[in-house]
Amino acid sequence: MASDTDSTEKTMRLRYAGRCSDCHRDLAAGTVAVYDRATRTVHCVTCTGTDSTPPEQIVSGPAGESAAKKFQQLHDAREKRIRDAHPKLGGLILALTDDPQSTKAWATGSRGEQQLGRWLDDAATEHVHPLHDRRIPGTRANIDHLVITPQGVFVIDAKKYQGRVEHRVDGGFLSPRIDKLIVGRRDCTKLVPGVVKQVERVRVALDAAGLTDVPAYGMLCFVDAEWGLFSRPFTIGAVTVLWPRRAADYVARSGALTAETTQRTLRVLAKAFPAYG
Fold this sequence. Notes:
Largest sheet: 6 strands, mixed
Radius of gyration: 21 Å
Number of helices: 6
Order of helices and strands: EEEEEHHHEEEEEEHEEEHH
C-alpha cells in the first residue's frame, strides 16, 4: 500500500464499530482496518487488494515474544513495588523471594512456544510457512503459531505442561460420551475451546479474502509433557492433541493446494494477524 502522503487510505485501529465495504463483515471497535478518507469507508486488512509481497519477505515473528514481554513487565512491576515499599530491605527481600507462580507461568509459556517454534521452523520449506506469536486485532489474545501449507492452515497452541498426556472417555452406551484431556492430574479439557475460537478467527479471515476452500485445523501441542510408549495423537472437539515432533511431521505433509493459493493465504494471514513487536 502506498504511504499516507499519496493515498487516501490509512491503516488504523477503529474507534467505532463499522462494516467492511468489500466483504460486508462487521468490524468491532478496536479492530485494525483500512479507512479511506475519500469515500469515508472502512474495509478489512484482507480486502485491501492484491498484495504481491514475496513469501521470503514476510516476517514470521519470534516465537514466544509476547509471553516473554508479559513476564518481564510483571517481574519489573513486582520489583518496583517491593523496592518502593521497602527502600532499605527491598534488595534483600527480592534476593530471598521469587516471582509468584502466576508470573513465572508467562516465562514458562514463552519457553514452550520457543521450543515448538524451532521444530516448526525446521519443517519450513518453500511450501511450508510458519508464523509465530500473531496478534488477534481487537483483543489482547494471540495465536502462538500459524503454519500455512499445501494442506491448509494449522492453528497451533503450545503448552509447556508437566505430566502424562491422556485421552479419557467418560460415559457412553447409556450415557453421553464425554471426552477429557488429562495432563498429569489436571483436567485440561477447557483448553480445547480456546483453540477452536482461534480457528474460527482464522476461518473468518480466510473467508473474507475469498479463500473459502482453504481448510483450517486446530492443534494443541504439549511441550515436554510425558507420552506413553505407544501413544498416538488424538482429537477432542476437532482439535488434534500431540507433541512437537509429531506437529512438525503433520505440517510437512503434502497437500492439494497450489503454490499460488498457499502464498496468497500466507500474505492474507500475515496481514490479518500481525506479528508482535
